[in-house]
Structures are given as structure tokens and as C-alpha cells.
Amino acid sequence: MTEVTSIDAELAAAAAAVHSHAPGSAGPQDKPQIGLVLGSGLGAFGDELSQLIKVPYDAIPHMAQSTVVGHAGNLCLGRVGEVPVACLQGRVHCYEGHPLDRVVFGVRLLAELGCRAVLLTNAAGGIAEGLSPGDLMLIVDHINLMGRNPLVGPNQEPYPRFPDMSRAYDVELCHSAREAASRASVELREGVYVGVLGPSYETPAEIRMLRTLGADAVGMSTVPEVIALRHRGVRVGALSCITNLAAGLGGELSHDEVKEVADRVKGAFTNVLREWVLAAGAMVSKVEG
Q: Quick check: helix, strand or coil at residue 100?
């Protein structure tokens, strides 16, 4: 018999609170198929769902609150076309002082609610030559330089102690992202994302090191979420909005610049994301059917 852990109990309580705000979401017809995490300045997508129900994070037990400007702090339930979705409108980060089990609690809740695939988004600094502010980059792999892993500690049965990360970013979801961008007439770049702790931006010397290691973009999120989701067998895709050039490649860096660029490209970003959700929903339905 599988032992119930404190994380299991917390997730059950959080899911029950979500269902109390949206009773229909507990049923098989409305259980979310696709989860989304909407990063800095990218939360507008959640406001555009049909049949929208918003559940503030402070109404969900054990859910940490983001202190970062541009992260609204709501779980949005609704539909994109006929695809039922659950969106995290903002995330929390290690650099805010949260332990990793709180940082990944939101994506584990998406899995608990029934999401079989999760699409992650973030704002990132461009490292690779040719990347410019406003570009969208499909993440095809990552490098974890955050110095921590959300799976440290007792393993959560029945999930594997040593999950395989050789294909952390689902091949089919990556393919559907390319097709989604084509349908939305948006150029999609591809690359490797490196996760660092933050909150300070990197130095030019650190960026030169990261480029040597094979990183194309750098940010302060996403990697722990991907690990936690893959541990639970959830398929993952991720998309970065390149909001600035990394240190030494452009001017001075500021969070205001991140928000301004994210706001400038949110139309194109939203179009790609909508098409991606529709494709991912069809893929999940086909597998489960």
C-alpha cells in the first residue's frame, strides 16, 4: 500500500479548494487536459479563456504567493476552443525565499487536477547570436545551474526515484509548437535554456561561461517545474519570450524592460500559445482515446 505523504495531503486539499470554486472541474468532461504556466508579463492569456473562473492563490491552501511584479497570482480555469485548461497566472521563484517544494507546488497541483501535458512560459535573456528582444524561443533542453533540485528528499511514491530527463521536453509537443507558430505566422527560434538562481542578473563573464556551456537563453525559473512534472509523468513543453539581451550583449538590464518587451509581443505570443493548446489538447485526447 502506498504511503500518503504530506505533499499528497496538501495537493488533495488544494485540489478540493479549487473544485469548491469551480464545482464542474471535478467532473470528467471539465477536468483540465492542458496546464499552462504564464511567466513575467505574460498572464494576459489567462484572462482570455472562455468560461473563465479565477481562483486567487490565497484561496488555495499551501499555495505560495508571488511577490514579483507581473505575476497576477491566480489559477484560471476555462477553455481554449473545446480544450479544458488550467492556467497558473504567475509563479513563485526560489529567489523570493521559497523552498523548492513551494516553487513547484503549482505545477504539481496542475497534475493533481488532471492535466496530462503542461506548457510552460517564461521571460528570458538572449545569449545565442541572432536572438533579439521580442523573439519567441522553443526550449528543447535545459541546463540546471540553480544549485537545487525539487526531488531532493524522500521520494514520492509511486513516482520513480531517478526520473529520466533525456527527453524532458516532449518531442510531440515541440513538433506541435512549431506547427502552432507556423499557423500563427510567427517565427519560432529554438534553443537550450539555462536556469540560474537569481535574483541579480548575470555578469558579462558569467554569460560568456554560459554560452560556452551551450546555453542559448537564461532565466530564473522553469527548470524545477519541468523536473517536478516529468517526475509525475506529465508531458512538458516550454516557450521563452526573449525580453532582453543578456549581460554584456546589450545595454543595462532592468525588470521594467522585461515587462515592456513582454507586453509588446503578447499578441503574437498569445496567438502561438492558443494554437499550441489546441494542438496539445488534440494530442492528449488521441492518446487517452
A: helix
**Considering the domain boundaries, does residue 216 fall inside one?**
yes
Contacts of 234 (CB under 8 A, 6+ apart): 35, 107, 110, 111, 115, 116, 117, 118
Which pLDDT score, from 0 to 100, does residue 170 have? 98
In one-letter notation, the amino acid at residue 88 is L
**Nine-digit cell string for 67:** 511577490
Nearest to 97 by CA among 60, 143, 65: 65
Domains held by the chain: number:
1
Pairing between strand 217-219 and 117-126?
A: antiparallel
Domain annotation covers residue 196: yes
Query: Alpha-carbon distance 253 to 261, whole Å?
Result: 12
pLDDT of residue 24: 60
Comparing 25-39, 122-136, 160-174, 248-262, the range with the smallest average pLDDT is 248-262
C-alpha 206/C-alpha 195 separation (Å) is 13
Sequence-distant (6+) residues with CB within 8 A of 160 are: 231
CA angle 80, 81, 87 (to 5 degrees): 10
The model's confidence at residue 286, banded by pLDDT at 50, 70 and 90, is confident
